[in-house]
DNA sequence: TAGTGGTCTAGACCACTAT
DNA sequence: TAGTGGTCTAGACCACTAT
């Protein structure tokens, strides 16, 4: 299995420090030549490295060494920005759109609503050191947040707005983690090639009165995240 | 992008119920012919379906439709067997080996031990409906479990043995979820091809007195698992 | 504009599986 | 034993990126 050997050779170069985070690998044709193989086999090796979270691909730009993943605790209220700063990372968030829509099937199910209910939908992309790492869609029940869309959603975090303008805080969260692949708009926003493997985190959030408030669907570049948490077990 | 269209065509067949869980897809050469393409392109489409968790591959045996994933809550003490039964699945566990070893680097770190400490290592494979879905390695601090290796580890769950023979229960767990790929022994035990994408769950377990007891490293077929939990948020 | 990655073709050989 | 999946070769074209 040639491609495993090529993978190991590249891993060694990464671990020896010859290749550092964010650095671009040489062109596929050059790598293939240097390992005396074809592009197809070389790409097998690169896909393996991608699956292991050691490198990532930017669509049509090439392959890059992955930095350390962000440690992400879905049971903390800590928002992305504060979480990143606490880990000495440089976060940024782009607001893509915020609008009222009729529920999609997926959103209706997550929010426990009838089909075609009115909800808010907010799409954002979050960056670490200017690399897009997660595409987040929030579906929000509008009852408790009248006028939300008129506020400056680009300038403040949703959790801050909830708390400061509406007196709502998250008190309970139901979350689900699965693997999937990036396609279409989501792939594009993350500068990913269609089909790039990814991690999906779905969260359903409840307020201090146990009422369902909103949900968010997060598509993460899987090399950029490590989900970590601590739980006290009940007996 | 031909391979996305092929993928969509197969998804449609799955969703229409023409293909049912555990069923084998036709041979790659036949599928390629029926979509009027080559094996390379067809395999692009199959890899996409694999990344989405809709199909899985058994090494040299072919591609199969994925059943529903097992819902897995890492914050519950519930062991694999009871979890599976509660979801109307048919679990089985194979004990591969149980022995005393000197810590590996990874185990030493997780168990907060010096290099070359004595620990127990238990390797098991767990099945659902006779399909191997997870490879589990337990690293166990031996102090609290004298004579553990002499017990019938194949016949009872570790948590049951801990509780019944040693009066030890899990009270706190630290866990971490990342993606990786299957290689070597682990791949083989799961009937997977080298490089198959997978989900890794690491758990570090503490007893009722807050002492570190053991850790386990789980390599899951990623289509076989959906990690789900509920958390009360502290403020 | 030169070079690159994304995608695809059309094969080949071999060890293994299914029967 | 027939057929299959795993792996690999040696190309090709094109739209896009980097400069």
UniProtKB/TrEMBL annotation, chains A, B:
<keyword id="KW-0804">Transcription</keyword>
<keyword id="KW-0238">DNA-binding</keyword>
<dbReference type="Pfam" id="PF07702">
    <property type="entry name" value="UTRA"/>
</dbReference>
<feature type="domain" description="HTH gntR-type">
    <location>
        <begin position="1"/>
        <end position="68"/>
    </location>
</feature>
<dbReference type="InterPro" id="IPR000524">
    <property type="entry name" value="Tscrpt_reg_HTH_GntR"/>
</dbReference>
<dbReference type="Pfam" id="PF00392">
    <property type="entry name" value="GntR"/>
</dbReference>
<dbReference type="GO" id="GO:0003700">
    <property type="term" value="F:DNA-binding transcription factor activity"/>
</dbReference>
<dbReference type="InterPro" id="IPR028978">
    <property type="entry name" value="Chorismate_lyase_/UTRA_dom_sf"/>
</dbReference>
<protein>
    <submittedName>
        <fullName>Phosphonate utilization transcriptional regulator PhnR</fullName>
    </submittedName>
</protein>
<dbReference type="InterPro" id="IPR050679">
    <property type="entry name" value="Bact_HTH_transcr_reg"/>
</dbReference>
<dbReference type="InterPro" id="IPR036390">
    <property type="entry name" value="WH_DNA-bd_sf"/>
</dbReference>
<dbReference type="InterPro" id="IPR017722">
    <property type="entry name" value="Tscrpt_reg_PhnR"/>
</dbReference>
<dbReference type="InterPro" id="IPR036388">
    <property type="entry name" value="WH-like_DNA-bd_sf"/>
</dbReference>
<dbReference type="GO" id="GO:0003677">
    <property type="term" value="F:DNA binding"/>
</dbReference>
<keyword id="KW-0805">Transcription regulation</keyword>
<dbReference type="GO" id="GO:0045892">
    <property type="term" value="P:negative regulation of DNA-templated transcription"/>
</dbReference>
<dbReference type="InterPro" id="IPR011663">
    <property type="entry name" value="UTRA"/>
</dbReference>
């Amino acid at each position: 299995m040639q491609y495993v050997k090529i993978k190991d050779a590249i891993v060694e170069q990464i671990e020896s420090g010859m290749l550092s985070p964010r650095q671009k690998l040489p062109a596929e044709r050059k790598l293939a030549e240097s390992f005396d193989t074809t592009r197809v086999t070389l790409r097998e090796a690169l896909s393996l490295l991608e699956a292991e979270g050691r490198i990532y691909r930017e669509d049509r730009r090439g392959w890059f060494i992955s930095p350390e993943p962000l440690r992400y605790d879905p049971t903390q209220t800590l928002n992305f920005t504060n979480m990143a700063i606490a880990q000495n990372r440089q976060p940024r968030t782009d607001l893509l759109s915020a609008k009222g829509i009729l529920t999609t099937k997926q959103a209706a199910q997550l929010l426990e609503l009838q089909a075609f209910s009115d909800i808010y939908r907010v799409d954002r992309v979050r960056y670490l050191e200017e690399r897009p790492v997660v595409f987040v869609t929030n579906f929000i029940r509008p009852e408790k947040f009248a006028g939300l869309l008129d506020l400056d959603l680009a300038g403040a975090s949703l959790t801050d707005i909830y708390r400061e303008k509406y007196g709502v805080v998250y008190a309970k969260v139901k979350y689900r983690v699965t693997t999937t692949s990036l396609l279409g708009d989501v792939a594009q926003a993350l500068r990913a090639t269609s089909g790039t493997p990814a991690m999906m985190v779905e969260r359903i959030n409840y307020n201090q009165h146990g009422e369902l408030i909103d949900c968010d669907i997060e598509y993460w570049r899987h090399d950029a995240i490590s989900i970590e948490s601590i739980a006290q077990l009940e007996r």
